[in-house]
Amino acid sequence: MMIAKYAAAAVVAGILSLGAAHAQDGMVDELRQPTLDSLAGKKVVFVPMSMSFDLPEGWAAIMQKEAKRLGYTLDIRDANWSTDTGTRALTQAITEKPDVIVVQNFDVASYARTLKKAEDSGIKVIQVNMKSSYQTDAFVGADWYGIGQYAANRMIEKCGKASGKSGKIAIIQGPATAAASVYQLNAISETLKGHDDIKIVSSQTGDWDQSKARGIAQTVIQQNPDLCGIIGFWDVMDAGTGAAIQESGKDIYLITSGGGNKTACQGVENGTFKEVISYDVEGQGRDLNNAIKVLLQSKEAAGAVKFALYTPNKIISKETMSTNSCWDLDQLKK
């Protein structure tokens, strides 16, 4: 009995001694160096719709910092609001054989064949925020169906029978073939089924243009003096929509969506918007970096695995707004 007791004590002492030695020497993380090696020297090409507005500027700032930190390169090829320019940029990138292409589509069709060609050439492709009809390795971005569903439900609450309002609402879309338009419209239509107290009096394309959105809103308000609400599809465009509402002097509930730049919070503060559904560029940038790192480490061939990272929505209103509700580009670049 005593022998067993002494033996057990010796084993415990040995374990404690071994643990102390390891604590002094430190343990080697065997995954770390192979991970860093798999990222260093790799090449990523980013083809945005344009570098002239907040979303691509924010994504690029966040991706650039991570690329610099981990030793791979990020090369930006600006499509400058032209699908032809974007297609040429993608085609050129394919000949250069980068490891990953990150692309922001103009619509669901324009880049579809080119994206397939990229994957067929062995290049992994991430689509950001605006989907193509062709599904590539990864999608990172807004849940457009969820955004449309939320906006429609808010119109039911604010303009439906229980509100005592007219039930008349308008929709100001982006381009008709843009993913943000087609998926949101589907969600709005599905959500409003059976709600006869809500009437869509106008659904028009503002084409992401502030002046065009303003003109549409002015006309719809004139034609419908008892208009209750407007669903807009992008806060930058809907600054024009909000201006038309303020000019009219009417209490019209404007709900829109965007990347959560500081101008969104300013728009809520000054009454341009009642609500902004933010798909949070900071969060999307983090998800883009994670998708890039996963694909660079993966041994799977381009196109072999498909996945999506839908960024959670943040609701920005006077009731929900806090100091960290919106982001500032200068801060992202630091």
TrEMBL record:
Signal peptide per UniProt: none
Protein name listed in UniProt: Periplasmic binding protein domain-containing protein
Lineage summary: Bacteria, Pseudomonadati, Pseudomonadota, Alphaproteobacteria, Hyphomicrobiales
Similarity-based family: Belongs to the bacterial solute-binding protein 2 family.
InterPro entries: Peripla_BP_I, SBP_2_dom
Organism: Rhizobium loti (Mesorhizobium loti)
CDD domains, per database record: PBP1_ABC_sugar_binding-like
Major localization listed first in the record, in broad terms: other
GO cellular component: cell envelope
Record's keyword terms, sorted: Signal
The Periplasmic binding protein domain, residue ranges: 52-299
Molecular functions per Gene Ontology: carbohydrate binding
A Pfam family matched in the record: Peripla_BP_4
Subcellular location: Cell envelope
